[in-house]
Amino acid sequence: MTLVRESRRSRARRHGLAVALLTAMAVILFALTLSLGQSFTPPVDVLRVLLGEDLPGVTFTIWQLRLPRALLGLLAGLSFGLGGVVFQILLRNPLASPDIIGISWGASAAAVFCIVVLSLSGPLVSVVAVAAGLAVALLVTVLSFRNGVGGTRFILVGIGVAAMLESAIAYVLSTAPSWTLQDAMRWLTGSLNSAQLAQSLPLALVLAGCGGLLLTRGRDLEALRMGDDVAAALGIRVAGTRAIVISAGVGMIATATAATGPIAFVAFLSGPIAARIVGNSGSLLIPSALVGASLVLLGDYIGQFLLPGRYPVGVVTGALGAPYLIYLIIRTNRSGGSL
Amino acid sequence: MSARSLTINALSVGYGDTEVLTDMDLAIPSGRTTVIVGANACGKSTLLRAMSRLISPRRGQVLLDGKSIHRMPSRELARSMGLLPQSPIAPEGITVADLVSRGRHPHQGMFSSWTKRDDEAVANALAATATAELADRPVDELSGGQRQRVWIAMALAQQTEILLLDEPTTFLDISHQIDVLDLLMDLNRAQATTIVMVLHDLNLAARYADHLITMVRGRLHLAGSPQDVLTEETVRQVFGLESCIITDPTSGRPIMLPIGRHKMESERA
Prior knowledge:
- The complex is a heterodimer.
- Chain A has 14 helices and no strands.
- Chain A has helices at 2-35, 43-50, 58-90, 103-117, 123-143, 151-175, 181-188, 197-216, 218-224, 228-233, 238-260, 266-278, 285-306, 313-335.
- In chain A, helix 4 (103-117) packs across helix 11 (238-260), helix 5 (123-143) packs across helix 6 (151-175) and helix 8 runs antiparallel to helix 11.
- The model of chain A has no long low-confidence stretch (mean pLDDT 88).
- Chain A has a single domain, classed as ABC transporter involved in vitamin B12 uptake, BtuC, CATH 1.10.3470.10.
- Chain A is mainly alpha-helical.
- Chain B is an alpha/beta fold.
- Helices cover 33% and strands 26% of the residues of chain B.
- The longest helix of chain B has 18 residues, at 174-191.
- Chain B is globular, with a radius of gyration of 20 Å.
- At the A-B interface, helix 1, helix 9 and helix 10 of A face helix 2, strand 6, helix 3 and helix 4 of B.
């Protein structure tokens, strides 16, 4: 009895500590993005500007350049991290993240088509991107359906669909009359370079709605890790939970993708990194969202200032993610490992 | 604990064009151990899955205290009936105490906090399965027998009056098979838990069942005490095998000895 209580409390303490640590990390990186750029702005000045003071030179830098970038990076990172891990948990495979199985690419392709070919902009692009993300999720489900949704088949079909969508994006970009390298990079690997403050609002709303919904399903998702049968025996409506989680996850991922492009591998990496930090002390949802935010902010900072030349964030996260993907495939082949 | 009645009424289940269960009528004796046996693909696992609502019937009903389980809220059903499926998945690195705690799921609300009753249920489940000393060990480091005990502990933490198990002894060596079955019998005797399980081994089934059910091609064949059900005639009809039934000198239960084509004694003669 005391033993049970003790082990539960020590798990809870460990989880709390991990969440606090990851929150601190995301906050520090956010602050870093605000005060470090081509020039250093003391945090006190940043705060004064944010509170409405007008400091010559600084005000423009913060409100027009750094804040939109930091805010969009933070929100997109949270969305990718949370959206990615729920798919990985639901399908019990780290390869099942939306950027591997084509959902992000569907949203990206739809967004690039709307912007380049139809000359649309604003919230409509996000709506189309979400619809395309859902359509891809549905397409992959239908194509891989055989007596129920099979995990591995689902992922392999998804990888194929992702490849097709990637080439579709490249095609649209190459036929566009005036595409720039920066735009192309945004839709192929993700970038915060064209961040505007107005982009953050819809993303924040979707994150609050879909993310909140996902958090209410946290416990059910934990139970689903033990297999559909065990989860059903524990009183979870498996099909209903799956539908809710997939819709909310796609909504979040697609909205973020419409704003920043599919920032490479963030959705894929966040869950496994969070799992290493949190261990089995509790839910991975919040830790993974925080890891996603840190990855995007850190990746963007590295890409802008620590490398010779300036690279969009997706190039950096892509370089981090690819070796992990290879490691994972080798390890999964050996042990059939899960998240 | 109140005894719950579990009955099956003209149940038919199928996938696609094939019908796996046809017109099953069954009453599960409450507070007893019921074992279902039959040849491969006779529908015994399907029957267990239909009883626990993992699959929906084409026709007929599964009734818990006279109410169709398909009309009950999932969590309410999960507080009355537990299920240990054939291959549950232990999340990587999860500890024994954590896994067993998850059996409390149907007793907890979406954000409700962990209560003293939950702790008690988990502690009792660990004690009953002799896994308390493993509480902080990761499940994936345990032996097959220990792991099966831990899964049973999770089902116990769920505190249901009815427990369904799909081949709980597969992949275990004989001493661990006996160990798991003894454990289930303890539970049944101590807490009057109604146990329904599918077993592969006919002799273990006859040894541990109060009530033995045989199935042939998706239909109920016989149901009754092991002494009444396990006969040479039954083995012929259910498994298509010639056999000789003797009585176990220790338990007094019937034992099936297969005859096979090579009767060594007579061949030598």
